[in-house]
Specification:
- This protein is mostly helical and 102 residues long.
- The chain has 3 helices and no strands.
- Helix content is 63%, strand content 0%.
């Protein structure tokens, strides 16, 4: 039940756990964040701004999904966890130090 004066902008037409938008945002921006964090050429203020922006974008996507009424906060949190798992899996496959066969 929503408080008086608050309308839902969209009615979900499919199961909402986990949030696909939150999963994608975390996996995409999180992977870029991890790659840039390890880049020695990115330093100083540019590094700080880039990493902060990449960390904030998934949070904004999650907040928007809840604000628009298409997901519960738990759906977004679940999406973030799946996205973080995707970052670890991608890192295990693509990070040069983790290759089993050289």
């Amino acid at each position: 039940m929503l408080p008086d004066g608050l309308d839902v902008l969209a009615i979900p037409s499919s199961p909402s756990f986990p949030s696909g938008h939150a999963t994608f945002a975390m996996a995409y921006f999180g992977t870029i964040l991890v790659l840039l964090a390890g880049n020695p050429k990115l330093t100083g203020r540019r590094r700080q701004v880039a990493l902060t922006l990449l960390a904030v974008l998934p949070v904004l996507v999650g907040a928007a999904r809840v604000a628009w009424g298409v997901h519960w906060p738990s759906d977004v949190a679940g999406g973030f966890l799946v996205g973080i798992l995707a970052i670890f899996v991608a890192g295990a496959f693509f990070h040069p130090r983790n290759h089993i066969v050289d």
